Structures are given as structure tokens and as C-alpha cells.
Amino acid sequence: MKISLVGLGPGVHQFHFEEKPAMWGLENHPNLRANILLDVQLEKAPTHLYLRNHIQTLGRFECDRCLSEFEMMLEEVGRVMFSDDLDLVQSSDEEIRTFDPDAREVDITDDVRDLLLLSIPAKLLCRKDCKGLCAGCGVNLNEESCRCASQAVDPRWQALQQLLDNSK
Ligand SMILES: [Zn+2]
Ligand SMILES: [Zn+2]
Q1: Dist. CA 148 → ligand 2 center (Å)
Q2: Are 58 and 103 in contact (CB under 8 A)?
Q3: Distance CA 137, CA 147 (A)
Q4: How many independent structural domains does the chain possess?
């Protein structure tokens, strides 16, 4: 997606978009199905262009522990900076791109896609204290208890289970 800079005066401009994941090249992403809300705050000056991209969307996930499906609001903010100060562009710790004062548009597709991917947490739990599935009988322990718990657990099995839990 490109934002046109034609006729945009110096100062801060706001844009709001609501698009399907396909707009950001994410039509096949398993977790991103809902519309994606994007707020862009764009600051234009003769020497630089700053963008603040704010995305929000409802993701669909499978819990790492109990395998049930759940939805979670995803939100992320990212900045994109363009400057005509080449020293700044080269020396800054942050990524600053070279500003072209004659540019007629700015393409935000890759930046927004990166932001969406970044908003998905590495650890996906339906809730913080998800009890997961019983290793013995496979029932979802959030929904029901099972008889396995009351039976004596083989200590070797318990050690293995602990390893599995720690690796999550
Ligand atoms: Zn869960
Ligand atoms: Zn069980």
C-alpha cells in the first residue's frame, strides 16, 4: 500500500485504513483472518518524513498447551524514518532511510507486514494459567478433571513431563 505525498503540506497528517490481510501479503497466514486496522501518523517536513504505524487486529490461535482455539487482540506500533541528513542516516542506531524530497508516495507494505508478524507472541496460551491436556488420557484439564491425577504417577514419567513443561 502506498500513501500519496502529493499535495501534502508540511506538518502532521493522520490516515486510517481497514484492510484485509491480503493487502499486506498475508492472505495465507493461519492466524490473521480478521480485518487489520491501521492508523498512520505522518509528519512531513522539507528535510524528513516520519511515520508512526499503529496496527490492531484480532488474531486466531491454537493454544500451545491445550490445543484449543482462542482469539487475541494484537497491537503493535512501529516507526519509519526518512531523513536527508546522510550522516544521521549512516550513524544512527535506528534504521533511518534516505529521504527523497521529490518522492510522490511512500510504500508502507513491508513495514506494516513486519509489524503484524512482530505482534504475534512467541508463546501462545489461551490464558496464563492454562492447565493443558492430561498426559495420561488427553482430556483438556481446563474443562474437566480426570482420574489420572489421583493415580500414582511413575516418577520417571513425571521427570519426563517436567522436561516437556520446561521446554514450552
Ligand atoms: Zn490452553
Ligand atoms: Zn487424565
Answers
A1: 4
A2: no
A3: 9
A4: 2
Residue 126 lies in a domain: no
Q: Residues lining ligand 1 (ion), CB within 5 A?
A: 63, 65-66, 126, 130
What is the per-residue pLDDT for 113?
97
Q: Are 31 and 109 contained in the same domain?
A: yes
- Is residue 57 within 8 Å of residue 117, measured between CB atoms? no
Q: How many CA atoms lie within 13 A of 161 on its CB side?
A: 12
Ligand nearest to the Cα of 138, by number: 2
pLDDT in tens, 52-105: 999 999 999 999 999 999 999 999 999 999 999 988 888 888 889 999 989 999
Q: How far is residue 18's CA from residue 28's CA, in Å, rounded to a whole number? A: 18
Query: Domain span at residue 135?
Result: 131-168
Nearest ligand to the C-alpha of residue 126? 1
Q: Which numbered ligand comes closest to the C-alpha of 139?
A: 2
